[in-house]
Amino acid sequence: MFHSRIPTRTICARTYTTALVQPPLLGLNSSVRGKAEKLSRDWKGTSASGENTKNFIGGEFVQSKATKWFDVVDPSTQTLLTRVPETTNGEFEQAVAAASDAFKAWSKSTVLTRQKFIFELQRLIRENADSLATSIVLEQGKTLQDAHGDIARGLQVVEHAAGAPSLLLGEKIEGSRDMDTEVRKVPLGVTSAIAPFNFPAMIPLWTIPLATVTGNTLILKPSERDPGAAMIIAELCQKAGLPAGVINIVHGTVPTVNAICDHPAIKAISFVGGDRAGRHIYERHASSHTLQYSPLLTHTFSGTKNGKRVQSNMGAKNHAIIMPDANKNHALNSIVGAAFGAAGQRCMAISVVLLVGDAQAWLPDLMDLARNLKVNGGFEKDADLGPVISPAAKDRVLGLIGSAEQEGGKIHLDGRHIQVSGYEHGNFIGPTIIEADTAMTCYDQEIFGPVLIVLKADTLDEGIKVINQNRYGNGTAIFTQSGATARKFEQDVNIGQIGINIPIPVPLPMLSWSGSKASALGDLGFYGKSAVEFYTQKKTTTSLWKSEDALTSRASVHMPTHH
Length: 563
Ligand code: NAD
Prior knowledge:
There is one protein chain. The chain is α/β, with parallel strands linked by helices. It contains 17 helices and 24 strands. Strand 11 (290-294) and strand 12 form a beta hairpin. Helix 4 packs across helix 5 (144-161). The protein is globular and about 85 Å long. The N and C termini lie far apart (66 Å). Residues 1-14, 18-22 and 288-307 have low confidence and may be disordered. Bound molecules: nicotinamide-adenine-dinucleotide. Residues 9, 11, 194-198, 221, 223-224, 253-254, 257, 272-274, 276-277, 280, 313-316, 347, 446, 448, 474, 515, 519 line the site of nicotinamide-adenine-dinucleotide.
């Protein structure tokens, strides 16, 4: 079987070390070295020059006493930047205690107080976008421009959260004379978030603003591969006036994730990442919640129905159909950008293009556009795409490309042997285009690299059938100039997020993430209205104040401020 030769995604792909050695940062060129050193000087929680990344617990950036550490390495050069701990049990308990304690006051703060924090956070993220972007490029490898995009999309969620006074509006009805029933959206308690490596700022910002503005506290576990942006955001939250303990950051891998799943004080988990972890978390969290009503009566809840909430966004295989009537230039440029941007490491990357009918003749033009993309270190001005995250990720992608060759696929553009001058040790893969069929391993697996699978179809119906049979449901797109064709596609395709002449149809934050099928577990999507539902529970109060009992009193003439 070809499968056995393809390295599976594993969490411990990188070796960990226990002793801290100061790396000389010599792998970085001098201008990047300067940026790395500045980042270490400017921020308390993160380092790009060899110091350990700290946990953030109860408002303090604290050095972990962990015995296990994971290397964070620049994917363009393999330079060791920092290390993250596998948070100890004791430290994890401290984070939960800090979050539980902070919840008492934060949940009682007014929505206008919380809104003020969000306004401040928005301003500080804008002001410090360069630091965030530097950290992202260093640790994640994407291009500087793309790193700013990562921040900008997260910032939109912050800006949406500033609408909390409207988002949290309750309902009220006078059901009987003088008797009102009021529905309030109240916070859950301590919530948690577990993030992937591919959007180090955006994905933490999917949860931080909405969890906190709704009155919850949060424990965030960033990806162990690129924790820097989350640490900078934590410091910005502090500077924006967020009280100690409202947000806490613990680092680690599976044991820390399991601790989050198992802790009874944690009421909700937002997970974004791969299938294996996402399913594990959904199942473990859902099945581990046991409530003890009395010494004799306990009840183990299953599923998310009973107060424990999980939202789990996972893998994808996003198809785009190009119809022969499409605007060719727009369609091909869109596909190339969406397939190879961020080195294909976006959950909404287009990884399969279905060329329908005469559009099949456009394959050489598609290849030319892809061939012309510049692969380079993320800080280089001409870079269109950077490296993939790790040598293990590169091996896996190369294995999948190799499997296509062995299973009868045609490699039209082969990026396996690319050399990037000045970055000889980076995890680079050039844009790769493979003509395949749906039985091949490269079609079956999420590749998460700069690899585009080309399928050919005679008709729109054939294309829709392929998409509908795929297990994933994150996103899909069609390129056509016919409204009728677009309408049929939209109606017949069973995917959660659809683009019409748009390759990466990610909803804006006032709407909600709606990936479906095997790409998501849990009923409530990230951000938007769903996030408000996710982070709050309903509380109804019915009260009777008979107007006939009123005493007349003097009215207040002061302007109410509600603080
Ligand atoms: P990953 O699953 O390896 O890691 C995600 C998080 O889970 C990390 O914090 C990691 O420490 C933890 N983790 C990893 N393996 C675990 C395990 N076995 N048990 C418990 N926890 C575990 O994912 P990644 O490689 O960081 O990110 C890439 C994946 O994320 C891709 O599959 C991509 O499609 C997906 N993703 C999905 C979305 C979405 O919204 N659907 C968005 C971004 C990324």
